[in-house]
Amino acid sequence: MKISVNTVQNVGIDYELAGVGPRILATLLDFLILGSLSLLFALIGGMGVSISQGSTGSVVFFIILLSLLPLYHLLCELFFHGKSIGKMAFRLQVVRLDGKKVSFWDYMLRWVFRLIDITLTSGVAALLSIVLTKHTQRIGDLAAGTTVIRQKNPVSLQDLTRHATPAEYTVVFPQVSLLSDRDIRIINEVIAEVNRSLDFKLLDPLAKKIKEVTGISSPMDNQTFIKTILKDYYHLAQE
To answer: Is the pLDDT of residue 9 over 80?
Structure first.
């Protein structure tokens, strides 16, 4: 099953929705990691207590370690851009349905609703919600306006994403410095979708948006223009 998400650049990108199987496997892997961390922290705490004979400092340290465990999913998704370690293993990622960047509060809502989705119902609520909703959303996703997608393998459109440039390369469009890392990531996502669908019309709104943001005016065809934009950007980033 696929979902089409319009980015803030008004470019539609098709994503593959994560199925129940990969999400369950990712969750089980996360539980395994959490169990291993709990055991590790218990050992560290025990060693600390025996070394310091139960000093207040070692007890506080042990409590701090244990308090981090419930925050595992929130911290992972926040710092790894919508992925826990389990999600990374199965190439899953949390995205917003409206194409906007997932915010801290979105991740927070998903984390809070884990209490209903996973903890209190042993995952039954999450499973039913994923199966019954159009965009395979658990309750936390419905609250946050998010879903979980399965990322594609890295692909390229001919040599469009081959950004290596020689040292003597001359930047064609210095205005690329106005583009952010997020802009470049979206450009690469559109390129991947073009490669998958062979729908080169997707390059039209992308090229138009790049020109609007940077103020560039160029007679190049869209494919050559976007290839040059990427080369210029990565060349400047390496300097």
So the answer is: no
